[in-house]
Amino acid sequence: MKIKNNNIVLIGFMGVGKGTVARALSKNLKTMNLDCDDLIESSANMKIKDIFSTYGETYFRNLEKTLAKFLASSVRNAIISTGGGFIHAKDIKKIGTTIYLKSSFDAIITRMQNSENSEKKFAKRPLLKDPNKARELFNSRVEMYEKKADITINVENKTPKQIVKEIKKALSLKDKN
Ligand code: S3P
Q1: Is the pLDDT of residue 177 over 70?
Q2: Number of domains the chain is built from
Q3: Does the beta carbon of 141 sit less than 6 angstroms from any atom of ligand 1?
Q4: Burial (CB count within 10 angstroms: exposed 0-12, middle 13-18, buried 19+), residue 71
C-alpha cells in the first residue's frame, strides 16, 4: 500500500495506546515519532489539562486544526500519534495514511486502570473525568474513527509488538536492519 506523504497517522480513542504503539513502531521502522499532544503542549507552553481549564475545549480544537495543517504541509516520513479528538481536524487525511487503533470502551478503561501511572493517565485527560460522559463521547466518535481510517487494526488484548507486526503487514512494510 502506498503510504501518503510517507506518514503513518495513528487515530483512536483516548487511552487505546496510540502513544505506546507509535513509540514501538518508530523504533521498529527507525523513523521519528511526533506526538500531537506533546507538540501542542510545547507550542502553547501549557499542559493539555491547563489549556482546557484556562481557555476551554474550542481553543484546544483550534490548536489541533493549526497543527493538522502544519503536519500536512511540512512533515514527511514520520509516525504521528494523534489525540482522540484530532479526527475532527479538517486536514487529518492530508497528513498521511491513517490507522485506527480499535478497541471497546471497557477494554480501554481496563487497560488504563491496569497500567503503570494509571492515576496520572486519567488526571491528564479532562474528557475522561466523568466515566458516563466519556462512554458517551466514545459512542459518538466510533463512526468518525471508522470514516477517517484507511486501515483499522483491532488492538484488544494485543501487545505493542503484535500490533506493530499487523500494521507493517497491512502496509506491506518489510523489516529494516
Ligand atoms: C482528547 C484526547 C487526548 C487529548 C485531549 C483531548 C480527546 O489525547 O488530546 O485530552 O478529545 O479525545 P489522547 O487520545 O492521547 O488521550
Answers
A1: no
A2: 1
A3: no
A4: buried
